[in-house]
Specification:
The chain has 5 helices and 5 strands; from the N terminus they run βαβαβαβαβα. It has helices at 18-30, 41-46, 67-76, 92-100, 113-145; strands spanning 10-14, 34-38, 54-59, 83-87, 105-108. Strand 3, helix 3 and strand 4 form a beta-alpha-beta unit.
């Protein structure tokens, strides 16, 4: 089994605005994070995910499936990736719904880069902790399979 603590963290960005995807990609790369960008939830789902510690920066308004609906679908599928929402069209009920569903943060555009970086670091820390907690279970399962 690989040691996830040595793998470079990856931030997945889902936003339908190419300029936002590019800007966030540059921001995360500038602090040494891996980044992969997608224009829709469907595009992200078609992508083969790696086993790297990760979090998801997700726009609320997306073509097809909304960010909030996608968050709910991820939860139903037991995909335990921390989610940080970004939006230019948010309101209080929307942010409450996202946070109650487990979002790490809900940021309205324009936001400060440091706010987003701090939220991403919290998300990555949550993902690392979850992975560390699951590691002994996975090791036991591997022993029983061999």
């Amino acid at each position: 089994m690989s040691d996830n603590s040595e793998l470079q963290p990856v931030v997945f960005v889902i936003d339908d605005d190419l300029s936002v995807r590019e800007a966030l990609g540059e921001l995360f790369a500038s602090v040494g994070l891996g980044v992969e960008t997608f224009g829709s939830a469907g595009e992200f789902l078609r992508h083969k995910r790696t086993d790297h510690p990760s979090c998801l920066v997700l726009d609320v308004r997306l073509p097809g499936l909304s960010g909030l609906d996608f968050q709910a679908d991820l939860a139903k599928a037991n995909a335990q990736v921390p989610v940080i929402f970004i939006t230019g069209h948010g309101d209080i009920p929307m942010s409450v719904k996202a946070m109650k569903a487990g979002a790490v943060e809900f940021l309205t555009k324009p936001f400060r880069d440091q706010e987003l970086l701090d939220a991403v670091q919290r998300g990555l820390a949550l993902d690392r902790a979850r992975r560390d907690q699951q590691k002994p279970i996975a090791e036991l399962q591997a022993r029983f399979k061999s």
